[in-house]
Amino acid sequence: MCDLFVPDCPIDNNTKGISDGLVEQLRPIHPQTVRGTAGCETWTVDFSPGGSLFAWSMGYGVVKVLAWPLPNEEGRDNDLDAQLTKKASERTLNCGQTVWGLAFGPRPRKRPGAISHITDGRPLTEDVKMLILATGLNNGIIKIWRISTGEALYDLKGHQSVVRELVFPPNGTLTLVSGSRDKTLRIWDLTSTGRTCHVLSGHRGWVLCCRVSPDSSMIASVCSSDNRVSLWSLRSYTFMKHLAFNKRSAISSCDFSPDGAVLAVGSYSSHNSAGWRVDLWDPYTAELLVMLEDCCSCEPFINSKTIKTLCFSPDGLYLALVVDHRALRLWELGQKTFVMETDLTTFHNELCCTFHPQGGIIATGTRDGHAKFWKARPIVPSLTHLCRAALRFSVSTHQINALPIPHKLLEFLTYRDLPKTQETYCRAHCR
């Protein structure tokens, strides 16, 4: 059903340690049509909460669920029982419509700092019998699947257009947040008999992205035709506030840091000479903390104008970006150069990305239906970072500001110690 290969990944010695870390790749059943018509795109990929499964929207209404790590075709996995177990856990879900969003649930509560990088390649254990998968379709329907059997349980109906985003809050509940091109968010209670939902309206355009804060108190959403980020209360189902940009920008994506203290927002300008931008906001105070800009040393015609999506690593130290013509970039907070930047001439057309919940691996989906897996350079979080993450997970910025602590410690705990404006440099202009 899918073709798996492990390509050679050459390292360019002239990139100052930056290398393309592609480790594995999945090809879809149906190749891209010669005419280039839509339908084959991988709009979304996701790992299960424990990291033992990977879901891949492989185009043409088909979702593939595979065991992680992926089965090995080169004989490196000599455990026959392990191979059979992985094969038995594979599921092919025929949704009948183009799949725009998917998400595993429920997602248990997890505090920052409880991260263990994958070092031996062994699969993680989790109760697959309890897992479900939600798929958002082109016709506005959300299909709910039982992963253990591959059975379609029921449909959620209400959206009037494409369901672009699906998110399970990280609180262990069967609550599902969906964002659609019908300009609404819906919050579904999957435990209720009638599958009741709350509708959040007020967006000016299509909902492109929505994320839930780690403490499950807030929803952040962005839409087309708007230069504002909307923050909603997941507890009262009401609008809270906007994070507004000073100048006209097209916002495409957002994500909360694992401790919930920072909200990263990806945007780009309509001017030919401008590139993408990532802004780090304090969601509590609506203060702009850091503005990360594209490499201005690049010529306008090769500058990466559009940013597709972004996401934080599980430890909160990395931010993965998918940008036009430059594929995947990995940025460490506070640095000017990228930890990883994929080859401009070889890899492109990425549409989405997500980190493995234990870190170390980034999965991306492409316009031609492929799923790619990239190795992120491991980094050991400092003790100060772990302490900050643990504290900020349960303490708001307002509460931090009221503490009688030294100014430098206050700046660190609220992420105000980072440079306010940072211009990044691509591999061609590393300094």
UniProtKB/TrEMBL annotation:
Q: Which CDD domains match?
A: WD40
Q: Which residues form the SOCS box domain?
A: 380-419
**InterPro entries to which the protein is assigned, alphabetical:** SOCS_box, SOCS_box-like_dom_sf, WD40/YVTN_repeat-like_dom_sf, WD40_PAC1, WD40_repeat_CS, WD40_repeat_dom_sf, WD40_rpt, WSB_SOCS-box_domain
| Superkingdom | Eukaryota
The processes (GO biological process) annotated in the record are: intracellular signal transduction; protein polyubiquitination
UniProt keyword list: Repeat, Ubl conjugation pathway, WD repeat
The pathway entry for this protein reads as: Protein modification; protein ubiquitination
Cite the Gene3D superfamilies for this sequence: SOCS box, YVTN repeat-like/Quinoprotein amine dehydrogenase
Q: Where are the WD repeats?
A: 156-192, 200-242
Kindly give the PANTHER family that the UniProt entry links to this protein: WD REPEAT AND SOCS BOX-CONTAINING PROTEIN 2 (PTHR15622:SF1), WD40 REPEAT PROTEIN (PTHR15622)
- Name the record gives this protein: SOCS box domain-containing protein
| Species assigned in the record | Alosa alosa (allis shad)
